[in-house]
Amino acid sequence: MELDLEARCVRVVVHAGVLHLSRQSHAAEEDAALHAPIERRRRADDRPPPRLVELLSRQGCGIDGFIHSAGIVKILPVRMVDPAAALEVMNTNFLSALEIVRILVKKKVNQTNLKTVTFISSAASKLGERGNSVYAASKGALDSLTRSLAVELAPDVRVNAVLPGMVRTSMSSSTIDDRDHVAEILKKYPLGFGDVTDVAALVRFLVSDEARWITGQHLIVDGGRTCI
Predict the structure, then answer these.
(1) Over 80: is that where the pLDDT of 63 sits?
(2) CA 168 → CA 95, 116, 218, distances in Å?
């Protein structure tokens, strides 16, 4: 899911673990190679990945809004979860967010430009579902990160998380298109399945000045799923 939102200097969005940057005057997406495992990217001297630093320098300005919308899911019973599969989910869903924020708050890289951070989490972090333990845990970690960063980075940076329910995307298509099970799933959604635009509308609000007094919040947009 991509959410390209205007920032004062650049737009920034993470889609499937890849960072995209674009100037307001022209769209030029670049792969910052941030989907690699954290331990492979971190330098001994703790310098940020040079590719991202080069991108910021070449754009000629800083990033004031960061939206993390990366996610993968592996539906497996816990007896079949191996450490490699769990680490892949955590790298993409949680550690990539932590790493990018770590870089963007460095004054030598982004000065004090960063003002808003929005994580796309999941309503799954609030629910118990069979086979969804690793995915839910990764999004739960993102929720906890939201609260802690909101306190740590205040008052300069607002940090919030959006928790969607079942939204029509390429990642959820196999579930939504499964005619044998979709009827049962729909019973758990009073307002039916959502669209990407339902999530984007809330994110646009959170990164705007209208949300200037909102931070550290988990905002659920799930068509009523968590009410059932």
Answers:
(1) yes
(2) 25, 26, 21
Tally Cβ neighbours within 10 Å of residue 191.
Answer: 11
Q: Establish whether 135 is a catalytic residue.
A: yes
Interior angle at CA 41, CA 36 and CA 43, nearest 5: 175
pTM to 2 decimals?
0.77
Task: Enumerate domains of the chain plus CATH numbers.
Answer: 10-165+203-220 (3.40.50.720)
Mean pLDDT across 147-153: 98
Cα–Cα distance, 125 to 140 (Å, whole number)? 5
Which of 94, 119, 135, 193 does the annotation list as catalytic? 135
**Cα 112 to chain centroid, rounded:** 21
Residue 123: CA count within 13 A, CB half-sphere: 19
